[in-house]
Amino acid sequence: MIRHREVERVSSGAPALFVRLVRLAALSLAPALVALGPAGCAREEAGPGPNGAAPEAEGPGPRRTDTPPPVGIDPTSVGTRGKLVDRLFVFALDGATWDLLDPLLESGRLPHLAGLVERGVTAELRTLEPTVSPAIWTTIATGFLPRDHGILGFDGVPGATMTTLPNARMRRRKAFWEILAGFGIRAGVVGWWASWPADPLNEGSFLVSDRVPYSRMEAAIRRASLTREDAWPPDLLDSLGPLVERPDEIAPAAVRRFLHMDRDEMQRRLLGGAYRMGSYLPEFKFVYQSDRSTVKMARAALAAQPVDVAVVYLTGIDTVSHLYWHFMEPEGFPPQAAPEGDRRRYGEVIPEYYVLVDGYLGDLLDTVGDGTTVIVVSDHGFGPTGRLPWSGGHGRLTPGAPIAPAGVLVLAGPGIAVGPRRLERAHVLDIAPTLLHLMGVPAGEDMLGRVLTEALASDGPPELPRVDSHERIGILRPDRDIPTDPAGDSERLERLRALGYIQ
Ligand SMILES: [Zn+2]
To answer: Which of 22, 53, 63, 198 could be bridged to 481 by S-S, CB 3.0 to 4.6 A?
Structure first.
């Protein structure tokens, strides 16, 4: 198995990166702030493992400066009230739409989501145009518009040639998990768009960046191994790296419910042959394994390290919706777009993928446990485009697709109104203030969204007075060098091009 060798490289190949690192813990800050420093980072030798006591070491990550980051207002001086809910689980589904969820819920095929919908609150989640996923997921994470948070699209450096993907260092506003870290609340984040490189959080938190499932896809990517910036604490990769499955490791028996073809055809079309951008089966193989890997990592990490806020992002619904829509719903497409044989082969991919994700939801609900408040959210909806090769789409990026189709929002559990109840209005900007409210932390005055109070239990406390800006509390986001990952970026950009996200 080459996996172990690769993971070992993660632990052994990085000393050069650490030469210039500075120990933030020397900062004279409130205890909660000191926890933001690198005290929880991994050291070179195998530490006590990802979930053991935090080893003493210098911080991970590239290109840290020699001067400590500037600090602002002491978070302990900010009025908080303690968490309104014990635990929160945010399940982030790129591209999920009520148009497909509703009939699937109706037919009983999504039992886990149905359980949340029946006892909780739902909304069509209004979104932003252009519906560029990294921009909107960053809006959901920060509570700011793209022009303010700085992640505008798939190109990392606006105006530059498209050679790099957006990443966390380009983000100019704190993600909710960074805000929460300042208040000592533990988050475990897996797979969120533009969360690479993984910067230190407070002790007990962890982050597995969006690069981890991809970086091991050797058939598809030219980046050979995981690096220390891929997760925090970096030692986490010792246990999680081996869980990542490559596209070629896909199990034919497991995907027979999606792809109706005989064994020979499956062998030839799905398993055989190299990864090719934008063609149905290799893309399926890729996203299926990517989401599967994400869920496996999330379950393992969350089981070993309980957190206050668990966050898991999956990409697959978006990808299969782009590629397979005309097989599911051939009306509105030219007849030759989806011949009978292909409709039989591929017509179930999208609905079955929703069913698969509902199963993942069930698995993750088991992991986070009863008594966890759950938020299911998507960045935008989806619809048919009437043309190929991207037969499903969202927004102006895909001609023919609906403009800014609403995403999905479901809230259920402690602290949430008992349903079923439908919210009149909810916007992607409202997610961050609402999350913070549930964790007893005030939103920022500078955030445009609102706390979705009508979704909350009526006996809950009112919204806390807002703080001026979280950007001025705790460790400030410094002007940072922007790292790039040319191999990983080029592969993902090719995929995004193949899917029609970018030109
Ligand atoms: Zn999206």
So the answer is: 63
